[in-house]
Amino acid sequence: MNRIQKYILNNLSTLFISIFMPLFAIASVIFSIKLATYTAVIQLSFMDMSKLYLFVLPEILFYTLPISFFIAATLSLFRLSNDNEIVVLFSLGIKPSFIVKTIARPALLLCIILMFNFFIIFPHAKVLSSNFISYKKSEAKFNLSASEFGHSFGDWLLYFGKDNNDGSYSQVFLFNKKDKEEILISANKAEVLNESGVLRLKLSDGEGYSYSKDKFSQINFESMLINSAMKTSLTEYKKPLQFWLSKSDIKKKKRMFITNIILSLFPILSLFLVATIGIVHARNQKSRIYLYLFVGVVLFYGATFGLQKALGFYTIPLIVISWTLLTLSPLQKKYTQ
Q1: Could you state, in order of their start, the residue ranges of all structural domains in the chain?
Q2: Which of 329, 318, 306, 324 is nearest to 266 (CA)?
Q3: What is the pLDDT of residue 89?
């Protein structure tokens, strides 16, 4: 029995790798195109794009692994059927339940991996990706240069006369107009400081003027720090449970929680369907295996995403019970024991 199980699992693993790699490559290209849209807003280097790809890698694996397993398991049994090896197994008294139990082991392992990916790794990657994008967006606002048009620095209008090409600027002017007061600052030198996503402008050797209807004042300074209202919005995160229980985007997290739990169970829930589609009689049965594979994936994923909007958490037991019964019934009729 151990040799038979090993033989079935070897066929499964070979097909799984050959199916997973193309699906993973296609999903990577799709997500890379999606990530490339950020370049319209912020400047990203090759290393930045690589980091963003690593952040979405758990999501790519989450969607490609269960589908790859379902297709590979079905095709491996279909190949054994076409080679008449399934017929030999049945003639030796081996029942379809033995084949289902053999495939159930890697299916259960994959379900555990998907759950771990969903509950533990995904929150880390999601928060890191969000904070990285926020940081790069704020960093883009720091991309100042000498020009005749000037820049917006929070509530200030900022003008640089000369870029020293060493991170500092000369001939600096700032203007701030309030309801009852206007402020003008000039400095010989300015440096842009980025401290944990907070933008500060360090001015050196300058003068400041404040004037209104009632008074006019002037100050001279050797050094002055001006804080901008622009600040990187970073998500605080310590533990996965904190991510799922936080009130931010609670509706989105609820939908994600429901759908991802069901999708994590897809490998184990699809075992009866795998046996029904994959085990055929090569002579007597005309197989439409690729059509059945497509319909099976569409029905399961469609029901998962569609029902969760109307039923909420009740979608989980409904999908698990109904899918199990729907896929078990044809298998029982096909192979009465």
Answers
A1: 2-139+235-334, 151-231
A2: 324
A3: 76
